[in-house]
Amino acid sequence: MTPTLFGRWQTRLLLLATVGVLVSLPFAIGWIGSSANSVYFWILGYIAIFGLGWDVLYDYLQKSRWDRDWPAIYQLLAGIWELVFVFCGIKLFGFLPIPLPKEELQLAAFLLHYSVVWLAVFISSQSLMRIIFIRWRFRGGEWL
Q1: Domains in the chain: how many in total?
Q2: How many angstroms separate the CA atoms of 62 and 103, rounded?
Q3: Fewer CB near the last or first residue (10 Å), C or N of the chain?
Q4: Are 40 and 114 in contact (CB under 8 A)?
């Protein structure tokens, strides 16, 4: 079944709050990347907040398709668009505050963190959600 807007929101928030936090933890404590910093949780928060808004657009676009389907390639394109938006907001234009000067956030660390979080959330949405929440896909992505 095609996810509803409320189902998209629930799934996004659940996966970012669980899988996203677990994947961000090694970055935040300094195991991966240059140094320990909470900036990775700020990035995760921006992904969640702006993602709720983007989901409104994605839901509208999905409903305009003849089969009301949202293929995985569209999820990849949406992930790339969200990456560009958050990167521009944090690093280029600086309208998204982070707990360190924007010049200190390394591009490689940002890209690695975002890519690993996106991949982990994508894989979890395609596998774990279907295993843990058996009726999740039949309820339009709603797990409550």
Answers
A1: 1
A2: 37
A3: C
A4: no
Residue 66 DSSP label: T
Which pair of structure tokens corresponds to residue 84? 């560009």
Q: Does residue 144 sit in helix, strand or coil?
A: coil
Burial class (CB in 10 A: 0-12, 13-18, 19+), 93: exposed
Question: What local confidence, expressed as pLDDT, does residue 92 receive?
Answer: 85
Residue 106 lies inside a defined structural domain of this protein? yes
Task: Examine residue 10 and state whether it is found in any structural domain, yes or no.
Answer: yes
**pTM > 0.90:** no
pLDDT for 48-105, tens place per residue? 999 999 999 988 888 887 777 778 888 889 999 999 999 999 888 888 888 888 888 8
Taking CA atoms, 116 is separated from 25, 53, 83, 91, in Å, by 12, 22, 12, 19
